[in-house]
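Proteins fold reproducibly. Look at a concrete instance:
___
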Amino acid sequence: MRSLPALCLIFLIAISSNAIAQEKVQFASRDGDGSSPPTQLDGYLFRPPDAVGTFPAVVFLHGCGGLISSVSHRIMSREMDWAGKLNDKGIGVLMVDSLTPRGSGEICSRSGFKEWLYRRRPADAYGALVYLQALSFVQHDRIGLVGWSNGGGATLFAVGTQSRARPAAPAGPDFAAAVAFYPGSCNEQRLGSDWTTSIPLLVLIGELDVWTPAAPCRQVVDRAAARGAPVEIHAYPGAYHDFDWPGAKHRELVAYTTRAGVVPIVGEDPAAHADAIRRVEAFFTSHLLH
């Protein structure tokens, strides 16, 4: 057992040929409304290997399937892979589990989806930001945000200029940069025609994604950029949803057929995945390390 501002448990998890020191922590979401207390969330903190002094960090928001696999009961391999890559760059990672503490399983299916839970996830992101800024070894003005799919949509809601999750009287700086992978809600119907952000944002999406389509997302991002927002989007030809999931085979998720009758297709696209690694590393090097 090790002492941290919140009780934590340290153990090792294998990733590729390396092992990453992982600390399970707890912190409060910012979803309290005065009539009910905030949700106490689980988080998994990964420090860069051989870190000396302070370091920047990134908050992870998982997809609609959750952070912990219902099969292996371990953290999803996509998040583990990205944590390893960012740790190798000297960037810490705090993964947020938005589902388990709320007693929820997946929120991908029509029967499992919970709008109220989805709407609380931006508050989870800011709860993680506040938690990290209280740690003596984290650079409080160099904290980023990354979200995938459902978590990507939560990222867009969180960083928007009209975000309801942002503290009215913040104790520290806002997120320094954000990345949204194939984000849900990336359309004007969900975000509003006037959506914009002052936080540097990179959106990465597959051109063939039928679950979170590229065209309406590009429209939102391009219009925000035209209004001066520091945002950019890159769409990968031939890539589907989850194109950055290591080793994921292409498959149809019939159980997650949408209300519109769309059957999601997921799977890794090695070329898109490799390019995304390059872009994300360069993006965070620019905004968090320089």
Notes: The longest strand covers residues 18-28. Confidence is low (pLDDT under 50) at residues 1-19. The CA atoms of residues 208 and 240 lie 5 Å apart. The chain has one domain: 9-289.
